[in-house]
Design a protein that fits this description.
With about 425 residues, the chain is α/β, with parallel strands linked by helices. It has two domains: about 5-105 and about 170-185 and about 350-415, FAD/NAD(P)-binding domain; about 190-345, FAD/NAD(P)-binding domain. The chain is built from nine helices and 24 strands. It has helices spanning about 10-25, 70-75, 120-125, 150-155, 205-215, 255-270, 290-300, 355-360, 395-415, and strands spanning about 5-10, 30, 45, 50-55, 80-85, 85-95, 100-105, 130, 140, 170-175, 180, 185, 205, 235-240, 275-280, 305-315, 320-325, 330-335, 340-345, 345, 365, 365-370, 380, 385. The chain is globular and about 65 Å long. The relative contact order is 0.15. The chain binds flavin-adenine dinucleotide and iron/sulfur cluster (SF4) (2 copies). Flavin-adenine dinucleotide binds near residues 13, 183, 263 and 389. One iron/sulfur cluster (SF4) binds near residues 118, 121 and 158.
Length: about 425
């Protein structure tokens, strides 16, 4: 049998590649550094362009009309996928087409297959937690840095004996024919940009954090409440291009933040009680058919202010006064708000340097760059090395899925 394909990253892109290869009879090994698959698309509530719930969006491999959790399907329906969570690539040696890859696997303190999510362990120790109600595998995780005296009791009382506090990390070396990099993006936490006061005032959040507030599975049950005191939020301001298109941080446009900001503005206007929503922007970039989110936002009464945020003044009641320079009116305006939302840059994830270096890959602004710039080869990063999804730069889900399928098609052609 031919060697398996290694996929690094279990977000939408990596899982699509894994599922499609597995469907074609190709064994795959998926390495995911977190305890759950799904990547950044987990817990985002509704997804453009279809406005489906993120868990239920129609996967390419299911018949129209059949809704099934994409992530669970990838795990349960595919014997050809060997998923390694809490893992990362330690070393890559060998030659193109016959790589020897050493994978580091963190201790399996909770055996995911045995955990029935009864929650008993979480009652005894806060070292046990649930990453997300939609996590896959459906199991609690254990954080050894929070180890405490309740752990032993949790292990003793676990009804399925899923907990092993003595579990150890291990390395495993595998031979693989191809490597697919699907390591996605990280949403920049703009702690160093003073004018936005992120990390200083609790009611300043990023769009990813807002998505988790709006998610019915989130901590507030989807209610739009102020992080500072849990009071309802009625006045929301968003600001675009935070850290993007800025020579001090990232010179590139993060491409999708205008669309998801408008998606959020519409959800707030249509489904929550916010009475006042404004967006401060330099340009609104709604490519392809996403212009409809802009039109809907205007119909929903969202106010657009072209200009820059000059400063933030906190008030005693936890509201914030946002002072904005309006470049169309040539005036400074003051907006009192409950929640200030930053459309922060999408940056390369940490920890990819070793992979990039050992495979001698090209990079562009920190993301993986195609080996050559011919458009039909945009997913080819090297000899038997591919990249898809946001690993190539900010991308939406449909684009990530399309690229993953392109990778699959190239790998299948190579194995004929
Ligand atoms: C606020 C917000 C809202 C959005 N809304 C939408 C929307 O409505 N519609 C839409 O189409 N898109 C939306 N997106 C974009 C969407 O999140 C991405 O298109 C999608 O997540 C890309 O999938 P991916 O698999 O390429 O990357 P990711 O989702 O980033 O997944 C990458 C995976 O790789 C893992 N990983 C990273 N490095 C390593 C490593 N070294 N070793 C092992 N594993 C690693 C990560 O842990 C992660 O699980 C939104 C994004 C944001 C920020
Ligand atoms: S007690 Fe055991 S089965 Fe129950 S949630 Fe914890 S690990 Fe899972
Ligand atoms: S997509 Fe919009 S918010 Fe994001 S960087 Fe580009 S212009 Fe700015």
């Amino acid at each position: 049998m031919s060697n398996p394909v290694l996929i690094i990253g279990a977000g939408v892109a990596g899982l699509t590649a894994a599922v499609e290869l597995a469907d074609s009879g190709v064994p795959t090994i998926v390495v995911e550094r977190l305890p759950t698959i799904g990547g950044n698309a987990l817990d985002l509530y509704k997804a453009f362009p279809t406005d489906d719930c993120f868990y239920c969006f129609e996967g390419n491999r299911w018949r129209p009309g059949i809704r099934k959790c994409f992530y669970r399907s990838a795990l349960t329906d595919q014997p050809n996928i060997d998923l390694k969570i809490n893992s990362y690539v330690e070393n890559i040696a060998g030659e193109a087409g016959k790589f020897d890859v050493t994978i580091h696997i963190e201790p399996e303190y909770v055996e995911a297959k045995k955990c029935i999510m009864c929650g008993l362990c979480m009652e005894h120790s806060d070292a046990f937690s649930l990453v997300s109600p939609q996590c896959q595998p459906q199991a609690v995780t254990y954080d050894a840095s929070k180890a405490n005296e309740g752990d032993k009791k949790a292990a003793e009382e676990c009804p399925t004996k899923a907990i092993n506090l003595d579990a150890e990390a291990r390395d495993e070396t595998v031979k693989v024919s191809d490597i697919v990099i699907a390591t996605g993006y990280h949403e920049m936490k703009p702690v160093n940009i003073d004018e936005y006061a992120y990390g200083k005032y609790p009611n300043v959040v990023t769009q990813l954090e807002l998505a988790q507030i709006l998610d019915p599975n989130g901590a507030t049950g989807g209610k739009l409440l102020r992080p500072s005191d849990g009071k309802p939020t009625t006045r929301v301001m968003m600001v675009q291009c935070v850290g993007s298109r800025d020579e001090n941080y990232y010179p590139f446009c993060s491409k999708i933040c205008c669309v998801f900001a408008l998606k959020h503005a519409n959800i707030i206007a249509e489904e929550r009680d916010a009475s006042n929503i404004s967006v401060v922007y330099m340009d609104i970039r709604t490519y392809d058919s996403h212009e409809r989110y802009y039109r809907e936002a205007r119909q929903n009464g969202v106010e657009f202010v072209r200009g820059r945020v000059a400063r933030i003044e906190p008030r005693d009641d936890d509201t914030l006064d946002i002072i904005v320079y309006d470049s169309l009116l040539d005036k400074y305006l003051k907006f009192p708000v409950d929640l200030f939302v930053l459309s922060s840059a999408l940056e390369p994830p940490e920890g990819g340097e070793k992979i990039i270096e050992s495979l001698g890959l090209k990079v562009a602004s920190g993301f993986i760059a195609p080996a050559d710039l011919v458009s039909e080869n945009e997913v080819v990063a090297g000899n038997h090395v591919y990249a898809c999804g946001a690993a190539l730069g900010p991308a939406e889900v449909p684009e990530s899925v399309t690229q993953a399928r392109a990778v699959v098609s190239k790998i299948l052609q190579g194995r004929k």
